Amino acid sequence: MTISYDLTPEVKEFLKELPKCEHHLHLEGTLEPDLLFPLAKRNNVALPQGFPQTVEELNEKYKQFDDLQDFLNFYYMGCQVLINECDFYELAWQYFLKVHKQGLKHAELFFDPQSHTERGISVDTVYNGFAKACSKAESELGISSKLIMCILRDCPLQKCQDLVEKEAAHLIKEGKVHGLGLDSAEKPFPPTLFTNIYASAKKLNPELRLTAHAGEEGDHTYVKNSIDFLKVERIDHGVNSVQSDDLLRELSANKTMLTVCPLSNIKLQVFQDLKELPLLKLLEFGVPFSLNSDDPAYFGGYILENYYAVHETFGFDYKIWGDIVINTIKGSWCDENRKTELISLTKSIVAKYTN
Ligand SMILES: Nc1ncnc2[nH]cnc12
Ligand SMILES: [Zn+2]
């Protein structure tokens, strides 16, 4: 499903060349219909009753979701075809191959163990497959990456606690997962429910980075409470932060990054039009944000299409794009040398297009 963007070839080339970092990408959300059906066959998985039968029918369904829950229903059905370590590896590797062609240099990648452990698959099977693809992407494609393990907020709390304190405790302690996140249905499961679990994860490894989905369908208090109770340093989506100027000032003062997902917000009807995406207000208040693809197989675009869509709507000049990309690099969880390298690359690309 390719959407065409009304941009000049020069702008397209500029956006492609920018050294992009992605902070909000669910690896399970990269499961394209043309991988889903072969995996179902290979693993002998019967898709649920009523599930589309062909790539074309599935693509038709993906044209629009009613809301977050409508999408999540399909997302979790899709997860069922992932069984063996090689499936997780193949999924992530296909993602890296696609975004390598789009100028992605650094990726911070979510994965959802509970969508697999519920089906009897071990956390290690999932982790090992994804980690292998990450190592290969670094050595063969020059893409650095970090894995962020997410808690599914609509699973029973005890199971969320067991994931962190038992099943995946070794991955946290050994620093194999770099960060902890919180995703899935937002509104009925406010962040305060997870205060103790976040605290025990941080106790297992004080270096663990913390983030959470908030302010996608929940209001601005979900963002504020994620910061105050979960002690997160980043917010995934966070677009409803614009409901409170006080919160925007706080985000700006603390340099708390919002990982904004433009095409996702349209497909899940958070906004009806990209013009409503509050990037200008975030820029006005000095709130750092990055642009991301969330679940690209479902939302009609990877990282570069998200950059295209934002350019088509807001028409930022090259200098503003340079600032957005540099802020994204600064808010990344990679080491300082990598940041310096990517910032200097950004500056040279902006200079090439503005001189
Ligand atoms: N956009 C999103 N919001 C919440 N949970 C998710 N899981 C995958 N994508 C998600
Ligand atoms: Zn997400």
UniProtKB/TrEMBL annotation:
It catalyses: adenine + H2O + H(+) = hypoxanthine + NH4(+). It comes from the Eukaryota. Residues 19-345 form the Adenosine deaminase domain. It is found in: Cytoplasm; Nucleus. Its cofactor is Zn(2+). SUPFAM superfamilies: Metallo-dependent hydrolases. Zn(2+) binds at residues 24, 26, 213, 294. Its EC number is 3.5.4.2. One of its GO terms (biological process) is purine ribonucleoside monophosphate biosynthetic process. Transmembrane segments: none annotated. GO terms for cellular component: cytosol; nucleus. Binds 1 zinc ion per subunit. The active site is at 216 (proton donor). Substrate binds at residue 295. Keywords: Cytoplasm, Hydrolase, Metal-binding, Nucleotide metabolism, Nucleus, Zinc. The record marks 237 as: Important for catalytic activity. GO terms for molecular function: adenine deaminase activity; zinc ion binding. The keyword Membrane does not apply. Gene3D superfamilies: Metal-dependent hydrolases. Catalyzes the hydrolytic deamination of adenine to hypoxanthine. Plays an important role in the purine salvage pathway and in nitrogen catabolism. Belongs to the metallo-dependent hydrolases superfamily. Adenosine and AMP deaminases family. Adenine deaminase type 2 subfamily. PANTHER family: ADENINE DEAMINASE (PTHR43114). This is Adenine deaminase.
